[in-house]
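User: Here's a chain of 592 residues. Predict its fold as tokens.
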Amino acid sequence: MADGFYARTESQELKCPDLELNVLESMQDVTKRVGAAVTSGMNEQDALRARKAEIAKIERESTDETGLRSDVIPLYQGGEYWLYRYKKYTDVRLVFAPEQQTAFFGGDPDNFTYPRYDIDFALFRVYENGKPVRSRNYLKWNAKGAAENELVFVSGNPGSTSRLDTVAQIETQRDESLPLILKTYKLRLEAAKGYAAQGPEQARHALRQTFGVENSLTAYTGMYQGLLEKKVFAKKEAEEADFRKLVAGNPAWQEAYGGAWDAIAQAEVRYREMLKPLRFRGLAWSRLGPMALQIVQYVAEVRKPDGERLQGYHDSQLESLRFRLFSPAPVYPAFEKVMMQVWLQVALDELGPDDPFIRAVLSGKSPKEVAEEAINGSRLVDAAYRKSLVEGGEAAVQASTDPLIVLARRVDPFRREMIKRYEDRVESIETQAGQKMGRARFAAYGKSLYPDATFTLRLSFGAVKGYPMNGTQAPPKTTFYGLYDRAYSFNLEPPYNLPARYLEDKAKLDLSTPLDFVSTCDIIGGNSGSPVINRNGELVGLIFDGNIESLVGDYIYDEEKNRAVAVHSAAIIEVLRKLYGAGPLADELEGR
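Assistant: Prediction complete.
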């Protein structure tokens, strides 16, 4: 983290114990098969269960037939269902990473902003059967990068967007979900920072969570503020009004699809009522708490028919679940206690002392007492012990006296109750109505609108282009000159300090080399690490962020100011050769 990492030989590469890579091999439209599982006369709840059972069956059959990871993904709010098949790799080794300060120069103050000066990339080598994968399909490296106004593409797996959601659903996010998330994430961050302040080791233990929560807080704040802008919400209302008018103008469409909006609006009322119990009746924020609950649920779910299991425990998902659950990555008990205590305290504050979940979990004790007892006496820090419990099955888990497993057994019934309540009262109704809306959208607009992001592969296109900002103009690219200017403008004080090699070897660099750049490519959270390629299919950059104006991109895309931020391919080669002594690695990237 402090000095960066470079494996000069393959034997020095660091194995990543719980990193799974999935390469998309094929896609298949299974809409008709999923739809056929729902028969006339089924209510929404039975229809949801029938769809889920059929999806699990499709995934299991595909996995058995091909040996590939198989996921059925709904698109257009369930208007279509597609089967994605992936080649899975689990032997992934770190070859190079810069110092954290280099990759996150400017820290949280500069996060989601532009101009930026981050050299944010890492390089891994993928192995299969103990040998490096020799892929026939790869992106050639273009060290010159992309020029201003050049056409570029971004391929990646954007997480989720809500652009096709109804106004009622977006109102729930604006008025209920996002304020609650922001409130609780601030408490989570405060706890993590408090622990980190105890010393350098504690800061290292808390680093991943602190960084993640800071990043999420900034993102959610931008989303929330975007929804508070009247013009943004007015645009969503106008889009929905136009859509409904088109449907209402066609009697056949109105009869088939017209009730979808009201059905979703009514479901959203019920969702708002259960929002806090759904969010807080569980275990979160620590690592061991959720793992304990996974173990309790795992041994119970695998005894059921595949189609009746909770999401995450279907046959096609178990291999990846076990891979994560049995990871030998270290767990830090002292940090675990702090985060579990804060989670339980927030749950107590939000649900109240008389909530049945709170009474069952705390049993008259304080959150601090429960967290300390659960973590101090638990053996779940040992991956081998977690594995032995799972392999011992339901009998071993039910007989376990491990305090974390005991706690998870108390939590499990409440978690299941909330999942079922949500499925019966919200998800089943919104899935049925969403499918109607998807079909209405196809009828009215065809496929002129692309579906919301679903963590599946997307190809976005745009141009390398600056934009108007704060009464001036943001440039299409930044350079190493700008990096040093920003660092010295803040007297090299954190978070604008530079690692020693950047100060000692500055004269080696061509300071005019492009460092970061922006494009109009439409990206969202989950695109970080996505390659930016030119019209020749050559890699010219790596996505690592969006600008502050892009944070409302969950709901709308504004080509004038929404920008994807990437590190320039030329910058990567420049630092590898001149600062890190990694010329052989640069040669390998450039195909020399």
